[in-house]
Amino acid sequence: MNRFFVKKEDILDGAARICGEDAHHITGVLRLAPGDEVVLCDGCGTDYPAVIENADKTAVTLRVGDPSPSLTEPRAKATLYQALPKAGKLETIIQKCVELGVNRIVPFAAARSVVRLTAAEFEKKRARYQRVAYEAAKQSRRGIVPEIAPLAAFCEISPESHGAFLFPYEEESATSLKTALRGIVPDAVTDVAFIIGPEGGFEPSEAETLVSLGAVSVSLGPRILRTETAGPAALAMILYELEQKA
């Protein structure tokens, strides 16, 4: 069934209204008409069955049914801290991680990041990145649109602020990601974060800082992954393991 995001405040007294691009998509592309059923999502993890009452290419009004929790959201909220990659790669990382179930993505400037942006320069690009997240959330039928946070400095990352913080590191060999995840009790840890470095990896001093702050250094296996591969791969492993234990 077709699914559309609406703002929570736009669902009022059993009715909703969709305007703009989505209205055009409903009428001009999908050819939906009064009487057709759709699902609305408020972007906060709640779905609503709805029936189209009136529709044209500028606006669609709907009768809305009782809410229910979105069934597509992972139990664990996963945050990805992603070092700025080379041009174009961040959009791919955002798209794939949103499809897989990430809750939030925090880009940051690492010592070996090839791309150098100020917080203000990144802010000019953030609306586009948020749009990528929105489109990926629609395509994958997510219950939320994950936030793409403002650019952070490495010193602003706080592993202790999360229930668990995993640090996939190419120099780690003793502890696998799976071993670390086996020590996480799903009911006790619903907020898990992980951090991925840039193309050149982390500086040794950065790795030492992360571990000293409570990050758990883990291995993703014997092969070295590209930065645009490591994030989605680690996320899939984390959510799979935690959902299996839930």
Report on this model:
The relative contact order is 0.15. The model has no long low-confidence stretch (mean pLDDT 93). Helix 2 crosses helix 3 (119-139) and helix 2 packs parallel to helix 6. The chain is elongated, with a radius of gyration of 20 Å. It has six helices and 13 strands. The chain folds into two domains: 3-69, Hypothetical PUA domain-like, domain 1 (Ribosomal Protein L25, Chain P, Beta Barrel), CATH 2.40.240; 77-245, Alpha/beta knot, CATH 3.40.1280. It is α/β, with parallel strands linked by helices and 246 residues long. It starts with a strand and ends with a helix. The strands form two sheets. Strands 7, 8, 9, 10, 11, 12 and 13 form a seven-stranded parallel β-sheet that branches.
CATH superfamily of the largest domain: SPOUT methyltransferase, trefoil knot domain
| Count of DSSP-assigned helices | 6
How many domains?
2
Structural class: alpha/beta
Helicity, as a percent range: 25-40%
Distance between the termini: 28 Å
CATH architecture heading of the largest domain? 3-Layer(aba) Sandwich
Order of helices and strands: EEHEEEEEHEHEEEHEHEH
- The best one-word shape is elongated
Kindly state the number of beta strands.
Answer: 13
User: Any idea of the CATH topology of the largest domain?
Assistant: Alpha/beta knot
Q: Provide mean pLDDT, rounded.
A: 93
Largest sheet: 7 strands, parallel
Unreliable segments (pLDDT under 50, ≥5 consecutive)? none
Name of the CATH first level of the largest domain: Alpha Beta
Strand content: 25-35%
Rounded radius of gyration (Å): 20 Å
